[in-house]
Amino acid sequence: MHPRRLLHIIGAVVAAIGASMSVPAATSFIYREWSDGWLILLAAAITMVVGWYTRNRFERPSDLSMKEGFAVVGLTWIAMAIFGTLPFLLTGSISDFTNAIFETSAGFSTTGASIVTDLDAMPRGILMWRSMMQWLGGMGVIVLSIAVLPFLGTGGVALAQAESPGPTPDRLTPRFRETAKRLWYLYLGITILEAIFLLFGDMTLFEAINHSFTTLSTGGFGTDGGSLDNFSAYTQWVVIVFMILAGTSFALHYRGLKDPKEYLKSHEFKLYMGIMAAAALAFAIGTRNGGAIVDVIRDAVFTSVTLVTTTGYATADFGLWAPALQVIVFGLMFVGGMAGSTAGSVTPYRLGVLTGAARSDLRRVIHPRGVFVTRLGGDTIDDEVVETVQSFFLLYMFIFMTGTLLFAVIAEFNGGSFDIVSSGSAVASSLGNVGPALSQLGPSNTFIEVAPLNKYLLSFLMLVGRIEIYPILLLFTRELWRK
To answer: How much is the pTM?
Structure first.
């Protein structure tokens, strides 16, 4: 481990984040928000200068070990969250650093949680920055860096394995840099396609761009305080379709463009679609007295899709639904989209492996001398993969339980009155990058009343969940920093 080598890469990514701030600055100028535009440009300049100085000051690595890959990913996402606060702080849109770091962490981690209570009062440039953070965080700034910054060299593979959502990155070409480029082109293409479809509805160009950014990233930030509830049925169905696409493996999309039968060959895709369909059916039955049948079905499908894909949009306040339905909502926070998508949480792949392993163990109890293998669909899963998935899930649940305990204790000592449902769902939602929680922190509420220390806790959990736990947690281990 050579920490100085990592600073070169971190600096380059920070500089790229600074350059991306020019887009919200330009947005402010277009809407004649002159003061905000110049202040966002100042934030961009500060971020770029710090990033480029760090990049040029330290040694350029020709290769990265796996240990260095994990370290640079964890440190880079922390740096992104810190520098991403500058547009909020300098413009005064969010004047408190604690609230700014919460909003920025929710942005880059593609978590739909927010402390903003009046989106209509936010400057257009800041709304664009919120959406851009989620779009950049969706496929992963690290993967983008691998695609466009050649100095990462063969270390790109180590970075991708450390950052990519899911068990392993799916290569489409022998060179990972070419794979990353193709996935980003696909990501960009689908984003543009959604914006075009949204323009045929009741969204303005500004709204269409922002929502396409936050749909494809499964982020959930919007431009309206009512989320998607204030838009037409057409717009909501368009968003449903593109949320499903965003929660599907982008590598599968790439192969599916050549042969649509690839979707039917993927057991994880069928499991992913099946979970959403079953949840939608349960929601539709449970809310069947909530209005016209077409509205009930649309809200049921929308809620199911937004929860499984961890997007965080809302057309109905599921925090007010019957307790049995809220149990399903809570359970869906632990599902997530496919491995290799922009969604967070556990993923259907891991859930499928866990189910297969449990089935094998049960059969082994009945037939002690039998030889059983874990299968996902028709594929045999290696024991090493099973053990890795089981360890990940155990660690995920340990973090969830510990986080819930800490949230409740901190809230109690700060005079808060959050019940166990609010506490547990807030932690599950943050760790799974979902966004809205239940009860007092449901879709109709924000996180503004959460205690400052709990905001830092949830911000930490958002980043931990977004980059698959290990890169952040390993930063606190002695073994990572040993030479």
So the answer is: 0.91
